[in-house]
Design a protein that fits this description.
The protein has 124 residues and is mostly beta strands. It contains one helix and nine strands; from the N terminus they run E-E-E-E-E-H-E-E-E-E. Strand 6 and strand 7 form a beta hairpin. It is elongated, with a radius of gyration of 18 Å. It starts with a strand and ends in a 16-residue tail after the last strand.
Length: 124
C-alpha cells in the first residue's frame, strides 16, 4: 500500500472529506491518494485550510447531546426529530422524521438552517 498527499487545483467542485463543505473549482486542495496493490485508487480531498468545525459537526454534536433525538421546529411551529446523519458523495445528509410520523427522510444541512431548538435559538 502506498499513500501520498498532493496539492492540486480543483478542476471541478469536490466535497471535503473532513468537513463536508465544497472545495470549489479553482481552489487549491490536498489530495490524499491511496493505492491498494495498484488496483484500487481512493482520493480523500481536503481544503488547504479546512474550517475547524463545520455546521454538520455542530449539528451532529447537538444530536449526540440530545441522546440521538434533537427536536427542532421551523418558523411555523412544525416540529421534527433529527435523529442521525449519513454521508453520501455530495456530503452529509441529516436523517429526520416529522413529529407525528414514523417515516424518515434525509435533508441537506441548508434545509435545517431554518429550524430552532426549544429555546427558540437557531440549531445552526
Amino acid at each position: 500500500m502506498s499513500d501520498s498527499i498532493i496539492i492540486r487545483k480543483a478542476k471541478q467542485d469536490y466535497v471535503c472529506s473532513c468537513c463536508g463543505h465544497i472545495i470549489h473549482k479553482g481552489d487549491e486542495y490536498l489530495d490524499k491518494v491511496i493505492l491498494n496493490v495498484g488496483k484500487i485508487v481512493k482520493h480523500d480531498r481536503y481544503h488547504d485550510e479546512c474550517p475547524r468545525i463545520s455546521d454538520a459537526e455542530k449539528l451532529f454534536k447537538k444530536i449526540v447531546i440530545n441522546d440521538g433525538d434533537l427536536i427542532a421546529a421551523d418558523e411555523n411551529g412544525d416540529k421534527i426529530h433529527i435523529i442521525g446523519i449519513k454521508y453520501i458523495s455530495t456530503g452529509p445528509r441529516f436523517i429526520c422524521r416529522p413529529w407525528d410520523k414514523q417515516l424518515t427522510g434525509d435533508f441537506d444541512i441548508n434545509y435545517l438552517k431554518n429550524y430552532y431548538d426549544e429555546k427558540g435559538d437557531p440549531i445552526l
